[in-house]
Structures are given as structure tokens and as C-alpha cells.
Amino acid sequence: MTRGNQRELARQKNQKKTLEQQKKKGANEKDANKGMSLEERRHRDAEVMRMKQEKANQQKQKPSSH
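User: That's the sequence. What structure does it adopt?
Assistant: C-alpha cells below.
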């Protein structure tokens, strides 16, 4: 028995896998993160989350008018 078909299928699978990995960008490669260190990104993201939480708390404080 020849194994040509198995090899060809394995090649196709590997090629598909490598193409998918090339499409995915790491956090450092994304436009919003270029030139930023991990600590700088964490600080920025934490600040965004604080703002979101503050906004959510303000929404909770408003009396609902039904």
C-alpha cells in the first residue's frame, strides 16, 4: 500500500494550520498596541475598565422612570 494520499492530506492540513497562524496577530502587532510595553497596555486597559465601571455605577444610581 502506498502512503501518498496520507502524506498529501497531512500537507494540506499543515498548510491550512500555518495560514491560520499567520492570520492571527499577537498583542504586540496590533495597531493599537504598537510601541507599548506590556505594563503600558495593562495600565491603559485598567483605566478603560475603571471608566466602564464608573459609567455602569452611574447608570445604577439613576432612578428608573416607569
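Helices lie at 4-23, 38-61.
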